Amino acid sequence: AEVESDILRRVRALLRELDGHHPSCQSDRGMLRWTLHKKIQQNPSTSCVLVRILVKELERAERGDLRHYIIPLLHTLMYTLIQAPCIPDELCARVYDFCKRLLTLPKPFCTIGLEYASRLQVERRAPGTLYHRTVISEHSLPSAPFPYQERIFIFADPELLPEAICQALLSDTEAARLAQSPGGCMSCVVTHALQAALGDSCDIHSLRARLQALSPRDVERCFQQVVAALEGAAGSERGQLTARLESIYRGLLGSVPAGNAAREGLQGTPLPNPNISFHLWTEDEQLWKELALFLRPLSQSCEPESLGQEPDGAAEVQDILGDCDCCGQSRFSVLSTDSGIERDLPAQDEPCAADPERSRLHRKGGIKKKPSPLDGVALLQAVPAGKGPGKAPRASGAAPEPPGPLQRLHTARVVLLGDDRVLGRLAQAFHSLRKREARRVFLTARLDLQFYHIPVLPGQPSVSALGGAGPEELCEVAGYLGRADPWYESNINTLCHIIPKLATM
Asked: Which keywords does UniProt give here (predicted)?
């Protein structure tokens, strides 16, 4: 009861802040939702209590026509539900029915309701699916049944933000990246899926110890089995999925009696921190380069072997582009007598066509060049959509094949830190990207690109550094977003002065 009352008090304080009633302590402004998320992440066993409270508040907001409560509460609910070790089916059904009722409302309520209703339908059929899909996509784990990938790119202009903020963010993101390994993320997926399926009968402590003792290859094999079972549960009953996961559990721990599980309640498995890359925006084409390198691992399957080499992970983009050893060499051209017209080629019954050595095309006098990831990108850009580089040209007079639609398997979330000036730089970079895509489509056909803005102002900026404008005048876009969205105002805009303070702590 004490835990439930504490969570209810936090949720009510969050709703009061959405109404514009800020807490008396100014340091708590904008931090209520993030502290609530941190509390759930540290103790996932309280997730079921928070889900029940949020469902009641959503239903109360629906009855009272308090629509500005719905989207913030729904986002928090889904974030909690993903990490929850086990949610009763009747509670999931209430959330699912609420999301379906949102379809009668205008945008954005109907859009978010449809998205979350489809996710809940998948989760109810196979508990733990949303968790493993989130971890797989955010950490680019190898998975054939679910090949989607996501990455967060943080761009900060070093000329606009103090060096202390840039260095603090760079060190924090790098430390978070090094603290997590693919094997650890796979173990989290296996642990959460087995506990979601088995409930109280899952010995979570013995399972974690067993996974830590396994080799990375065995952990990946177990991970692939769990993912295949969850993704293949579309046409099967829930009992069959539970039986498959239970066999994997018994294969790890052996025949464990039901009474040997620790009676400490459901422990839960927090979500690992997503894969975040921090970049100091020093080049005009840096945004396009980073997005192209993000697509590079997926492109290797359809490139020649000469371009299939991965670059060293520690190499910078400037080294990738400039590391070419052929710039100082002489170039020689070979005159070709081939007209390139199909009817001018020798027929099959001519003697020259029977000799494979003479009919084979050769490239002479070429210069060997060290392959780079962006070379592979250029090669893929020249290939029509739906065709691989090695496909033969169609015969003369044959009907053209309709190009198949490309599936966007990558999602790039670009977060911009700064004031309106960094948004102006984004507009220039995005205009250059669109011009490049107008000449040859590549990124926009394969990548779901999303932009986010977090306003950050230095602690005591000088008037000369701001170009004669006040701090409020340099955050007009963030102010407009705050007036249009109360959640953005209370959770994002209020952090613009806190982030510089956190960087100096």
From this structure: Kinase, Transferase
Rounded Cα distance between 502 and 505, Å, is: 5
Q: Taking the complete model, does pTM exceed 0.70, yes or no? A: yes
Note whether 240 and 294 are same-domain residues: no
Mean pLDDT, range 10-15, rounded to an integer: 87
Say if residue 105 is in the same domain as residue 171. Answer: no
C-alpha angle 211-149-91 in degrees, rounded to nearest 5: 70
- Pull the structure tokens for residue 16: 């009061």
| Residue span of the structural domain in which 422 resides | 150-180+273-302+370-383+407-505
Q: Does residue 235 share a domain with residue 167?
A: no
Secondary structure in 3-state letters for 349-394? CCHHHHCHHHHCCCCCCCCCCCCCHHHHHHHHHCCCCCCCCCCCCC
Residue 322 or 444, more confident: 444
Mark whether 53 and 192 lie in a shared domain: no
What percent of the chain has a predicted confidence (pLDDT) above 90? 30
Q: What is the pLDDT of residues 137-193, one digit of tens each?
A: 999 999 999 999 999 999 988 887 888 888 888 888 888 888 889 999 999 999 999
Please tell me whether residues 116 and 222 are part of one structural domain.
no
Q: How far is CA 256 from CA 35, 171, 250, 253, in A?
A: 38, 44, 7, 7
* Residue 327 pLDDT class (50, 70, 90 cuts): very low
Domain assignment present for 218: yes
Q: What is the per-residue burial (b if ≥16 Cβ within 10 Å, else e) of 193-213?
A: bbbbbbebbbbbebbbebbee
